[in-house]
């Protein structure tokens, strides 16, 4: 198996486990870590001993790599740009990214055939991935997902992905409510309604005990949903899948745009207590991107974009 040179774009406490799982496959070898923040790079250097660079976009333009790992918000533009410039694969962890990052990745993946692999250990580990796969060919009219675990926000995203796989398309209306503080929510309840009348309700609660319950209704009545067997190490299983990928993960590319739209709508609904219509922006849009608008490594401030450092990109 040929070992792929892997650049890590963005560093936080979740990245070491992802990187370790990928390197454990024997298919990847990390070569460099890039991040906007010097403090993050200090931690990355202590953990990995790898060369580090503080300007991700500039560093990745010259780095010879076969794959780029993206698992932190705020680095999607640099990672996508790096993959565009060479035949490299973008490995993303959607469960750790914000809706805007997912939107940028989805646009590049669908329009520009960006080589893409998505790692979803929470989705796989919760059992929802197996449930969605088993029910994928059923015609579901109403779906109810009740999920409990230690990380409601991550589990909510897993529940959204499961819903989008079992009820294809983008919902027309989203309503959401939560209890607890925004930083430590005890639970989130979401209703997704589709234009054709299909309906999904998602109820995610914080608990020390991980569990889920799925109820699906079709035109002719209840649909039996097979309960999956336990997954030993979901993170390593996802890393092994990434090592086996030799072409684009078409399923991931097609799902990210809808996932980003629904998650953004949920965030808006939680803030406004209103019903929100998810919106997928046209994949082809012209944006002026300030490539130098990165946090300054010593002051923490942001450079002001000016003539000469604006770049016209299509996303």
Task: Provide a descriptive summary of the structure in words.
By secondary structure, the protein is α/β, with parallel strands linked by helices. It has two domains: 4-121, Rossmann fold (3-Layer(aba) Sandwich); 122-235 and 267-272, Dihydrodipicolinate Reductase, domain 2. The chain has ten helices and 14 strands. It has helices at 15-24, 38-48, 56-62, 76-84, 99-111, 121-125, 128-134, 152-166, 234-244, 250-272; strands at 4-9, 28-34, 52-53, 67-70, 89-92, 116-118, 142-149, 173-181, 184-193, 199-206, 211-218, 221-223, 286-290, 310-314. The strands form three sheets. The protein has a six-stranded parallel sheet with strand order 3-2-1-4-5-6, sandwiched between helices. A six-stranded mixed sheet has the order 8-9-10-7-11-12, covered by helices on one side. β5 (89-92), α5 and β6 (116-118) form a beta-alpha-beta unit. The longest helix is centred in the last third of the chain and has 23 residues, at 250-272.
Largest sheet: 6 strands, parallel
Q: Please, what is the CATH homologous superfamily of the largest domain?
A: Dihydrodipicolinate Reductase, domain 2
Uncertain runs: 284-315
> How many angstroms separate the termini?
34 Å
Write the CATH architecture name of the largest domain.
Answer: 2-Layer Sandwich
